[in-house]
């Protein structure tokens, strides 16, 4: 007896839901939650996108697990990533560098403050960070065919183009690798493995 189309779809979904991307096959609940609920999901809110960009630049040279487990501390230290408040945080840099709950890197901290100022400027010009970024993909996520997470490049020509644009308008610490990781995290790119339930 053959399965109906509906039964085949149900069977396929039930089996897909048993699989996460290989990098999320871990006992770490925060990593699982991030993979299941956020990574690759489109985000359009400027404040949320600013937070992800900030976390991704902090991620540079470090493991994502390290950054993710400090996210709550980052949110407290950076006023929940309200870019209006962060843009005024230069007097707080010394305190941030003494905050053991975050990654105390002077260059990265300064970059977050600088980027907040640029996002404010975009708004003053009648635009937004979200509009700027999503225009690069025509407001539609790029869905890649990924069989193994190890096959995902660290960056792409598009990420390099975006990086150059961001730097030209004043963004800091936004090299092609950081930009591509950010594109993945905010859903501009979906790099979930093909057999992952979150694809």
UniProtKB/TrEMBL annotation:
Residues given in the record as Zn(2+) binding sites: 21, 35, 192, 196
Q: Cite a single GO BP annotation.
A: base-excision repair
Family annotation (InterPro entries)? Adenine_glyco, DNA-3mA_glycosylase, DNA_glycosylase
GO MF terms held by the record: DNA-3-methyladenine glycosylase activity; metal ion binding
Q: Which UniProt keywords apply?
A: Metal-binding, Zinc
PANTHER family under this entry?
A: DNA-3-METHYLADENINE GLYCOSYLASE 1 (PTHR30037), DNA-3-METHYLADENINE GLYCOSYLASE I (PTHR30037:SF4)
- This chain's protein is named DNA-3-methyladenine glycosylase I
> What organism is the protein native to?
Fructilactobacillus sanfranciscensis (strain TMW 1.1304) (Lactobacillus sanfranciscensis)
């Amino acid at each position: 007896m053959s399965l109906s189309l509906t039964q085949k779809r149900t069977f396929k979904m039930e089996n897909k839901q048993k699989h996460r991307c290989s990098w999320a096959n871990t006992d770490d609940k925060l990593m699982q939650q991030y993979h299941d609920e956020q990574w690759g999901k489109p985000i359009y809110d400027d404040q949320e996108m600013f937070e992800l960009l900030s976390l991704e630049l902090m991620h540079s040279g470090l493991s994502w697990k390290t950054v993710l487990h400090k996210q709550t501390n980052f949110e407290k230290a950076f006023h929940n990533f309200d870019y209006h408040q962060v843009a005024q945080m230069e007097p707080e840099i010394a305190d941030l560098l003494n905050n053991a709950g975050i990654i105390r890197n002077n260059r990265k901290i300064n970059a977050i403050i600088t980027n907040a100022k640029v996002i404010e400027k975009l708004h003053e010009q009648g635009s937004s960070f979200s509009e700027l970024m999503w225009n690069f993909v025509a407001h539609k996520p790029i869905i890649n065919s990924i069989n193994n997470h190890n096959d995902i490049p660290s960056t792409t020509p598009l990420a390099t183009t975006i990086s150059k644009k961001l730097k030209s308008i004043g963004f800091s610490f936004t090299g092609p690798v950081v930009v591509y990781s950010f594109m993945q995290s905010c859903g501009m790119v979906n790099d979930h493995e093909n057999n992952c339930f979150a694809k």
